Model the fold of this input.
Amino acid sequence: MNYRLLGRSGLRVSELSLGTMTFGEEWGWGASKEECRRMYDLYRAAGGNFIDTANRYTEGTSERIVGELIAHDRESIVLATKYTLKMKDGDPNWSGNHRKNMMQSLNHSLKRLKTDYIDVYWLHAWDYTTPAEEVLRALDDAVRQGKVLYIGVSDTPAWIVSQMNTIAELRGWTQFVGLQIEYSLVQRTVERELLPLARAFDMAVLAWSPLGAGVLTGKFAGGVPEAVRLKEGSGRLSERNLGIAAETAAVAKEFGVTPAQVALAWLRQQKGNIIPIIGGTKAAQIEDNLGSLSVSLGEEHLKRLDAVSRVDMGFPYDFLNSKPITNIVYAGTHDRLRNHRDVR
Done:
């Protein structure tokens, strides 16, 4: 395991993060406490130090299990958790981005995790109701109180994240060092706005569902069972995504590795500071994911995977990158200009 800096900070985190949404069985699926320990031990033995959880995962059980697992080695763990999502039905103030929910969620998370501080505290999802200034000031207060060391933002539009980091910089408040988003070979629309944002602000990108909810593991190579197709609808099990999975499996066969390892290697080789969040319900899945660390895709394979999975960038990107426009914007010198600040 190698390590990366977490965005615009000096914090050193492992190049794969262990996601713990599956820690606990309250949602009718997931892993037992014993299997969670096996997954955790495998990850730690490989050199992993970055654990990702949330107050909402398995109704709080994920945090409780994580707290027990890291208790003997807390100072060596970079512990991340989140707030926003509901912890009580019918009460409007037990969810959302506002200060009240943030503080009560943080205090409950600290108790479940059996720790007195969180290394990275994430806003889990944007609620479109709380002012940016309220969120930022409340997070900054949590940092100044010593309950939180760094902050990140997840599942939020790029323009809002940009606005918030700019406000924080101007007012001397704590800025986001990480951006958590869905990113994989079957979900590349984030390359339009969110990834350029992260590069511009030097934010680490934590990629959740890096295997497309299992589509990229090759488990549907023999066809999608009707019951699964009906349950999933047309989302991740579209013909396009199954085609991407087939090409991923073809590349994996040439390398003599698993499709999941190729999908994770592709992510790790993308431009920017990308950290996939791996997870599973069995230790064997974590072991397989960790095997991706020894996979390095060549230019030919990267081009093949890009060709089958790329998305249209849309306006204004396709317009601005067209030859007629670049010719008149750069007076015919575009190919001779080296722009070291290009974050696209």
User: Anything to note?
Assistant: DSSP finds 13 helices and ten strands in the chain. The CA atoms of residues 185 and 309 lie 6 Å apart.
